[in-house]
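Homework help board

Subject: predicted structure for assignment chain

Our instructor gave us this sequence and asked us to write out the predicted structure in token form, then describe one feature. I got the tokens but I'm not sure how to describe them. Can anyone check?
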Amino acid sequence: MPKRPRSYATLPDAELDRLAAHGDSRARAERTARQQVHRLASQADAPPDPGDWIGAWSLAEGCYAHYLTDDLLVQFRRDAPGRVSLWVRIDAHTTHTQWRDAWGDIEVWRDRLTAWQPPDAGRDRYLLDLHRDQQRTSYGAVARRLNAEIARYLTEFWAHWRAEPEAPRVRAGHLWFLGRAAAWPMEAVGLAPDEIAMWLRDGVHNLRDGHPPFPPEAPITPARVRDALRHWRARHPEWLTPSP
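My token output:
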């Protein structure tokens, strides 16, 4: 049986530094990935170090790509305000053995990413933006904007799916992003997962039948925005500074 390649994802930082100092290119790549992904996760708005073109690109694009093995690529993407997620690229050439051998490293990176970003950081930042928006407008205006945003992403999702009904995997990553983008506002204001799934499913069915995806003032009502923001303000009074 062929020997599995060495796992760099599980090595401590000190060991990575030692190997990198001796010219190990995989150790250098792993060390750089940890630095840049940590920056994406915990300091997403901070400027990169002068001359750090990799960091500058990562922050500008909100994405960092890294080879776990010679064959398996992962990406760390900022897919919501303050949140970075781990994506694994699986294409027509990815084998079961490659996926199985890399699974331990994927779990290590998942746990590392979870430790680097607070569980509710993305939702809190998103609700802060909604709070500021509501202060300038109204709960109803915020709800209408969110519903228009959800409808736009879901409509784009349906358009892409309908364009390639026989080969949905070709755009699987893009379709996943559009679905997440449509679901995120509903998650942020506290809709339950089953409720979100129902709205998305019914919205796609409505689009398929030639109708708007949602009825008026749906799926997010002004009352839902009000309740979510009141709860958030009670938890984070320290964030309630006057908006510029």
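Reply (TA_rk): Your tokens look well-formed. For the description, you could write something like this. The radius of gyration is 21 Å. That's the kind of observation they're looking for.
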